[in-house]
Target: N-acetyltransferase
Amino acid sequence: MSIEKVTSKQLKALQTISIQTFTDTFGADNSEQDLADYLDSAYSDTQLSSEIANPNSAFYFIKHNGNIAGYLKLNSNDAQTENPNPDSMEVERIYILPTFKRLGLGTQLIEYAIKMAQEAHKAHIWLGVWEHNTAALTFYTKLGFKQIGDHIFQLGDDAQRDLIMQKDLNLH
Model:
């Protein structure tokens, strides 16, 4: 298992895994049009290139036996999607391909995110999770995240409620 920072040269691989994992996670619960509209916007070459180039954002691939198995996106400072807080780091995206689930990779990515936040001297790490994604809610709760609020996540024409979950970090 390895975790490596994504570069602009890996744009197509990032785009492919982003579309695959988002569709796997949310495709069955959303209309084809809403899903297509979101995927075209969020994962376009232009959008992903801009996000990769942002110095306050970083993508990381997790590999299993040399294969890209999932990815993580971290945001700090003004790249955070909500209430930018200099003491916090956001996990904007964390996804594992279906064939690599149940191998502990999601836990490894969260632990990596926590390490990165601690190294950046952040007091908190936070994320938004869809209120109906019970598997993710259970996962984050077990890892010590607590709900601190909510917000609307717009998927095409469908306004959905995400729960904002935060974990306080012990700074060393």
Observations:
- The first strand starts at residue 2 and ends at 5.
- The first helix runs from residue 11 to 26.
- Helices lie at 11-26, 32-42, 45-53, 105-119, 134-142.
